[in-house]
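How a chain folds remains the central question behind the approach discussed here. No coordinates are needed to read the tokens, only the vocabulary itself. For completeness, the protein is quoted in full, as a sequence line and a line of structure tokens:
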Amino acid sequence: MIESKRVLAVIMGGGRGTRLYPLTKERCKPAVPLAGKYRLVDIPISNCINSGYNRIFLLTQFLTASLHRHIQKSFQFDPFGAGFVDILSAEQTDKSNAWYEGTADAVRRNLVHFESHPHELILILSGDQLYRMDFRKIIGQHLATNADVTIAATPVPVSKIEGLGLMRVEDDLSITEFVEKPKDPAVINTLAMSPALEQKLETPSVEKRCLASMGIYVFSGDVLRRSLENSMKDFGKEVIPGLLGHARLFSHIFEGYWEDIGTVRAFFDANLALAQPLPPFNFFDRGSPIYTHARYLPASKINRCDIDHVVIGDGCIVTDSSLRRCIIGIRSILGENTHMADVVMMGADFYQTEKEIQADRAKGVPPIGIGRNCNIRHAIIDKSARIGDGVKLSPEGKPDGNYDHDVIIRDGILCVCKGATIPSGYVL
């Protein structure tokens, strides 16, 4: 309890989420559904709670309505633990009336709110990553090394470091260089891990590796405030490099599964990986559960189906269908003789009454869900979409772009937008 009261957790909600569009068309990144029943924001919040840190701020600014609803329904703490999850959206003040201009700018503009809660350390996290971490380990190392800043890092083969911030780490884990998204092979080679560091890792590699920043930072409170007494906007590009030589920077090496879900392709692949017999991320770990909204939905009904490697959320009705490598979200309804392969279906926000369904059909509008005799492949179907009978959807052989009926192909993945209506017989 003493240690937990020394720590505030701050989750970065990100910007407009343009790389995740159209999944962020009507919601911010942390609110994007995940794994059939969760939201992306549930991952960092659950990691905090499981680590004993329950004073959490979430910084965001775009399309926050669904995120507010989710947080209010999911994370309510008893009054004796003094825990909270507070959403801090960009707001006009006497110093600024603009949007957050970067991660560092967002934290700087909310220091006044953090100071209302006694703390010594601030744990800064990303809101769009899939991983499980016990933050007590990085906090413990931070205190043991008397660090000013500790950066969580994961070993990445040189062939896969594109778009990541890399650091040169000495054998005592101190950081002597930090380069944001380097492209020069000569620079990358100088940042490779030393043989002594490689030997400390549990997972050997035949390929040379670098330590990549996970966007997870522990700051001593006074160091954070001093490091933000300027106009720097981003931690990775400006603040961290600017602290080199002026503060004690250390790396905390993390070897578990970690996936940055920043693009439609990454989101799609990370979800489908959960349908594997032994998925890289385990939602079944009883010692570190992932918390979310308790919806009190009925068990799903699966009638006469052919199913292989499929995750099915609560409250679904699937009839006479064939499913291969799919994630089926809460309240999903699939009609007879529908075939889906490599599909992430996010489900629905509510059930329709029979009267509402009949009224929709009288207007020629299909009900929420997927109709009969459909064939859908390599797709993401966002929440509460309506897909009529006999619809065929696949991105194969088609370029990225916008298509009829709110269908968008992005990163080679066909996306049916939230609330879209696709009439019966439509083929793409």
